[in-house]
Amino acid sequence: MHAQVRHRRLIREHGHGIVHTAYHTARGIWETLIYRGWGVPCALARDMRLPAWFGHQDWAGDPRDPVHQAATYPEVITLTGLLVSPHWRPFAMSASAADHDRFRAEFQRRLPPDYRDLANASLQLRAAVGGASVTRWYRPAVEVVHQRGCPASGEMTAAGLRRRMKDQFIYTSDDVLRMLDALLAGIGTAWWDQFFADQSRPCPFFTDRPDENLAAWFGEGQLTAGRVLELGCGHGRNAAYLAGLGCDVLAVDFSAEAIERARKRARPVSGSADFRCCSIFDADFAEESYDLVYDSGCFHHVAPHRRKDYVDLVRKALKPGGSYGLVCFRPQGGSGYTDLQVYQRASLGGGLGYSADRLRALWDKPPFSLRGLRQMNKASGQEPYFGEDYLWVRLATKEGAA
Ligand SMILES: C[S@@+](CC[C@H](N)C(=O)[O-])C[C@H]1O[C@@H](n2cnc3c(N)ncnc32)[C@H](O)[C@@H]1O
């Protein structure tokens, strides 16, 4: 809990962008130290990684959950504190080894006594905070733009909520849904535009590689080329791959920045890729006309009160016998928020994790039947595919003639 309070305080004092990036930088340095085993004393053996979204919005993961424990480790806390500091940050970002040594000495000084060996023993820390990596990770110019009325911490104050909801009058159930949309409006197109604008941020899906499961499904003959609707296509890596396989793809995303990048992605294709910039809920498409609806990483950003609309959208878009492929957060990858917490905190905390049971409850009932649900295979970096093991990979079929 202390880590969360501290995280919120840092955000209040320095803003989301800096805290988010400082955590990412600390995470990168920390992973380098831990995973490469560089000078890490045995007593400090660590086995968990900070989740990739850490420092994202208003982190409030349960520190008893081992996935979040890393956020409470003194070395991560200390590194983050140094990296948000306007005084110490330049030392880490500098190209000079002497500056890195000063940064390292300060890191060592601030660590609790039991942990000093970490900074002491690891001469490689100098390399880990080396200019190239830190300047690549750290981009202070990119600040997340928040809607007026949405406090930086993401906690909804009564005043913020009143401003956001000004004259809303609730009568129908649609009014309630719109009210909840307004409550969560901070993480919309502007947020994603900022996100895609900074391509130097350490984001696993900022890659050209398509999802490993797509290659597997096509390779195994579970899918064949046809008409595809992609939901939340981002910068188009999967749409481009599918078009290359001969599919005719309509790819939708509400981030103009992402769509612009997707359109620029020139690839030899035997099919076609048409990119539309709009919310998936506003997309205009012919009903029952797609062989495949594909979503990699969008569904877990859909608010709980819009889940049913999402399922209806997929059902409407698919031909009878069509397939629905999904890549989404496992509980380990998501924010850990319950649905109730999403509305209490006015945030999805960076995306919701789903248990296998919940995915089955949504997608293994008429008109859908589940064809496969598995953990995504983590890519080693050698193969030309994307894969992260904190994600699910799931394929379902809509009933009816193929
Ligand atoms: C985690 S990113 C994944 C991007 C891409 N599918 C990939 O894997 O590279 C989620 C994407 O969903 C988009 N998104 C989220 N909610 C959306 C909505 N309601 N309508 C359209 N796009 C949405 C975001 O703009 C973002 O590009």
Q: Sum up the overall morphology in one term.
A: globular
Rounded radius of gyration (Å): 22 Å
Q: Oligomer, anyone?
A: single chain
Please give the number of β-strands. Answer: 7
Write out the CATH superfamily name of the largest domain: Vaccinia Virus protein VP39
Q: How would you sum up the major sheet? A: 7 strands, mixed
Beta percentage is 5-15%
Q: Element order, helices and strands?
A: HHHHHHHHHHHHHEHEHEEHEHHEE
Number of domains: 2
Overall mean confidence score, pLDDT:
77
CATH topology of the largest domain: Rossmann fold
Helix percentage: 40-55%
What's the CATH first level of the largest domain? Answer: Alpha Beta
Structural class: alpha/beta
Judging by the overall fold, what is the CATH architecture of the largest domain? 3-Layer(aba) Sandwich
Structure ligands: S-adenosylmethionine
* Count of alpha and pi helical runs: 18
Strand order of the largest sheet: 3-2-1-4-5-7-6
- Low-confidence stretches are 35-43, 120-124, 130-158
Q: Give the distance, in angstroms, between the N- and C-terminal Cα atoms.
A: 52 Å
Write up this protein:
The chain is of the alpha/beta class and 402 residues long. The chain has 2 domains: 2-136, no CATH class; 212-398, Rossmann fold (3-Layer(aba) Sandwich), CATH 3.40.50.150. It is 41% helix and 13% strand. The protein has helices spanning 2-14, 16-35, 66-69, 74-84, 89-93, 97-110, 116-121, 125-128, 131-137, 158-165, 173-183, 189-197, 212-219, 237-244, 256-264, 307-317, 339-345, 356-363; strands spanning 227-231, 248-253, 272-277, 290-296, 318-329, 368-375, 391-398. A 7-stranded mixed beta sheet has the order 3-2-1-4-5-7-6, sandwiched between helices. Helix 1 packs across helix 2 (16-35) and helix 4 crosses helix 6 (97-110). It is globular and about 70 Å long. The N and C termini lie far apart (52 Å). Mean pLDDT is 77; it is low at 35-43, 120-124 and 130-158. The site of S-adenosylmethionine has 17 residues, from strand 2.
